[in-house]
Each structure stands twice: as structure tokens, then as C-alpha cells.
Amino acid sequence: MEVETIENVHPVLHPVFPLLLAPQVIRKIRGEPFSDALGHLKLWCQFFNVLSDSIIKWFKDDVEIAEIKRSAGDESQVALAIVQASSRDCGVYGCTIKNEYGSDTTDYLLSSDILAEFFLRDDSKVGEEIEMTPLLFTKGLVDPGYWGNKFFGRIMMEELQIGKGCVHKKSRAKVIYGLDPIFESGSTCIVKVRNQIVYGTKEENCLAEINLETTKQECKIHNTVREYCKIFAAEARVIDKFGFALEVIPLYLIYRPANTIPYATMEADLKGEFLKYCTMDNAGRLIAQTTSEVGHKCCTFQHWIYQWTNGNLLITQLEGVDTKITNVKIATKSKGYQSLTDEGSPKILEQFVIQHQCNYYCGLLGLRAMTTMDSLQPSKVKTSRSPMLARRVGLTDSSSPQLLKKGSSSPPTAKNVNSSPKVDKKTDKYGENNTATNHKKWSSPNLSE
């Protein structure tokens, strides 16, 4: 009679076998402050018996906030960094591991009382030394940009955790010295840090490396959209009836040597009423504010950049004060478009095509109606070619709205379909719209920083 052993028992038929292979919690979630005493909190736990590649997810109040992959045999600690922890971060945190053999989870209640035990706040305001680096595009969008010369200065936090968001922790800081002429001494600026950073503790400096890569990518996305906005503003500027143009303010990378989470972004402190012109809710629905002129122009900018990139790039969030825009977010049709995203979001772009309604400013720029976009796009899109490069070499298949308006590749029916009702009122004696033909000859602007 054959002896029943682990080696010859079928894992599905035997009720005990799956339990032997499933990953298990060896250390439940624990909380501890970082050694820099700057208010950052680390939640960590540990799993063992990780016999196959696994997915580890962190939750807050049953809402997923982060995910990482764990290779088979890697039983090191997994941690979640909470930046400048406060009462808004309180809740029930959970960490779950799952693979083909099973799953296990551990929970932790972070309350205000527990948080108070971790931190004894020092109300004295102490400044910190920083290194600030701009991302430059001397050739427009032909190259991916490069990091410029560093500014060495000192800032002092005046107000922690402004705003309501938890994805980023925002603080208002006062510039002490060293950042002229970008930020004058005595002026205020906004420092933003990505919150809830998930990382493993197997490799030293893993948290700082993830913090650096995330922050650099945010700078790249924001400042790339800023370059697109410069071109958009240049095209709008030659149209008298367009009025004022939008401006995406620059975003800078800063390094704080004394901070456990050392990398953050810095931008100008916009004074006035802060509004959300375009955004996306938690369910993935695009929302546009169309009650103001700036809101309409932000929607036109969304349409313009979507058409310019042949339907490969969409701006999903634009916020700011008056014409000064910040807090930019994007979605791309495919993974890795212009090295901006790690995954594609084609459904979001499809939603924009269905939802967007052209306004007066879309008509002034001669943008094509979304209902005709798919039929007018080329079958193969070379995502590596920059729109600025296409314009400079004079490609006829460029998707620039300005070039299309001159008739290089736009079909004869596009003009009547997309013209704004207000633009149609001005016609010549033959009944044709002359708005587009009366513009001055446009040349590529100099986009050097």
C-alpha cells in the first residue's frame, strides 16, 4: 500500500495540501515613525511561505491604495510610507498577499490616539536645505528634456497639509535664500510629495529610490504638458478673437537631504480662488467645468492635444487659478507613449471622444469634430515622432490643428462640421467662412526655457 506523502498527494484533491502551500502572515502590520522626526510614518508587515510569484496589495478602509509584485522566495518585509501623517490618514489599513496557492491578510487600526503617541510635534519652525533642479526643453518636444543646473537654497515650512487630497501631501513653504530668480527670497511656494508609497525593505534605500522615480516622472508629465501648452498658446495668440491664453506653470524637482522621503516637487504658490477645470472622479468619469471662459479653453486644450497626438494623449485633469494651470494628469492610449505612462487607458480616451462637445474656441482653432476623428486618423501612428519635429520638417501628415486648418490634410467637409456657430456668422459674399484665412502666417515659436 502506497504511503500518502506531500510529494504524491494531488494539491486539489487533498484538503490539507493547499494550506501548506499558501502564503501566511508571520508579522502583522506594525506602525513606527521614521528616524528623521519629520512626521513620516511607516506601516510594515511580513509574509512567509511565498512559494510562487505573488501580488501584495495595501488597503485603507477597504479601498485599494497600492500594489506591488513579490517574486517567489522573497519573504522580506513589505512597507507603506505615509508622508507627514495626520488625522486624515487615520483608518483601518490592510495588507493582503495572494498567489496561485492561496492568500492571507493582516489589518491595523491607525487612530488619532495611536498617531499622537508616535509624534510629539515641535511647533518651532526650522528651515531645511534643499537642492532644486528644473527640467528643460531647449528644443521643444523634439527631445525628452534634460535636468538643468541645480539651485542650492533654504526653505521653511509655514503651513503643513494644505488642501483636501491624500494622494499628495501639499505644504506651503517660505523661501529663505538661494532660489533666485525663480523664487525670490521671502516668497511662498508649494511643496508636494506623493503619499502612501509602497516598498519592500529588502534593499537599502529602496524607499528613496521609489520616491525619486515617482517624483521625476511627475515632473516629466507636468512639464511635457507645459511644452504642449506653449504651442497651443502660440497658435491661439495669432487669432485675435481667442483672447487670453492658458499657461501651465513649471514644476521643479527638489531634494531634501535631511528627509527620509527626500524628493518632492516645488511650484509657485498661486494666489486666488483655486478651481478644478477638468478632472476625473473615482469611477473614471471625465468631468469638465464649462461655466467660465477658462473652463471652455481648458476643454479646447484637451481637444487640441488629443488631435495633435493623433488620439494618443489626453489631459484628464487641469486645475489652477484663472489662466495659471497646475495639478496636471494625463492618460495615454497605449503603454509607454512618449515614456509618460506605465499602462495604456484606451477606454478613457474613448469616453472623451463620446463626451466632448466642441465649443466656440474649438471652432476658432479649426479642430475636427470628435465624430470624424477616427476616420481621419492614419492607420499607423509613429509615437516616437515628436509633434514639434513633424512641424519643423514640414510633414504633411502632421496632426497639428494649425496645419490642418490650412488645408494640407483636412477633408473638404471638415470646415463646415467643426466651425463654431459664432464663427459662421462672418462670411464673405460667397457664403464661405474667412476666419481661418485671415490669420497671419504662423511660424514655430522658440520654446527654449
From TrEMBL:
Compositional bias of kind Basic and acidic residues: 422-431
Q: What class of enzyme is it?
A: transferase
What residue stretches are annotated with the Ig-like domain? 15-111
Instruction: Supply the alphabetized keyword list.
Output: Disulfide bond, Immunoglobulin domain, Kinase, Serine/threonine-protein kinase, Transferase
Residue ranges of domain Alpha-type protein kinase in the record: 139-370
Region Disordered, residue ranges: 378-449
| Composition bias, Polar residues | 396-421, 432-449
Q: Name one GO molecular function term.
A: ATP binding
- Work out whether the entry's keyword set contains Disulfide bond: yes
Q: What is its EC number?
A: 2.7.11.1
Matching Pfam families: Alpha_kinase, I-set
List the catalysed reactions. Answer: L-seryl-[protein] + ATP = O-phospho-L-seryl-[protein] + ADP + H(+); L-threonyl-[protein] + ATP = O-phospho-L-threonyl-[protein] + ADP + H(+)
What PROSITE patterns does this protein map onto? Answer: ALPHA_KINASE (PS51158), IG_LIKE (PS50835)
Q: Which GO terms describe its biological process?
A: cardiac muscle cell development
- What GO cellular component entries does it have? nucleus
Family of the protein in this entry: Belongs to the protein kinase superfamily. Alpha-type protein kinase family. ALPK subfamily.
Q: What's this protein's name?
A: non-specific serine/threonine protein kinase
Q: What's the source species for this entry?
A: Ameiurus melas
